[in-house]
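Sample intake sheet
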Amino acid sequence: MSESNPQQVRPQDSEAEDLPVAAEVFAAAQRLTGKVQRTPILTCRALNAATGAEIFLKSEHLQKVGAFKARGAANAVALLPEGTQRVATHSSGNHGAALAWAAAEQGIACSVVMPENAPAAKRAAVAAYGADIVLCEPTLAAREGTLAELVAETGAHVVPPFDDRRVIAGQGTVAQEIIGQCRELGFTPDLIVAPVGGGGLLAGVGLAVSALAPDIKVLGAEPAGADDAQRSFRSGERVTEQTPVTIADGLRTTLGARNFSVIRNTVNDIVTVSEDDIRQALALLWTRTKQLVEPSAAVSLAAVLAHPARFRGKRVALVLTGGNMDLETVGELLV
């Protein structure tokens, strides 16, 4: 629901039949108990001073496999059809590692299609969890086409990286935890900011917040060089093609169809940030909080730095989505 028009156009009936609902997020939270971490919320006075807001960091870089993606993957694997022997997906890294981990936990084989420019550390993580890796050109069309060929050959059950109701519901447990943890501290946040690439996380957050605490504003944040989600949200028409240019490799994919429908009805706005904004946020997180997050994770803080008037004086929960990167390239990210 945009701030200018809370009654956004509803999805078509055919779409609505396959859209997740908030109850699925709450069911996922029960299902994932003991399987994923209840990650901590961190605070930092330096970030408060730099932003003029009270910042609360939901530390999903400390999650299983080093990213929030463990939630959606574990929920999807728990809901697989009986007798499933192999799963497959396409991923730039974190979802692939998460699915490989979740599948291995259940003794299921896993194959992951990865773009050839995926960070080496993420490729290594996927392999370390026992998945087979198939490389392809770094475009969404190539990823989906290669995955289709793989499924035709192996009969694998596809667990999409974001455009899947099981995955969206799993990711939404992040927001359920944020609300619960903040209330344990005696307050409810004014805003929750989550990075958006394919939109699984943002859609899940929107679902949970709309049911549990609708007064909280939900904002998506994405790089200006990969702004298909903002363009889709503000135009009402999903952008299906883009050529992303950003250091935030986890946000280079295109907004999913289910995700777009959910986001239009549960999210207040999507803002963009420059590459310099991302680098500034990375530097602050690394030096002030001592948390080694990846560029995609820093986009939520970058949004607060780039749009200070929207956040000044507010209590703002930011999702730090992951912490997987090539350590040898850390220095280059701040150049």
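Comment: The domain at 69-158 is CATH 3.40.50.1100 (Rossmann fold). The first strand starts at residue 41 and ends at 42.
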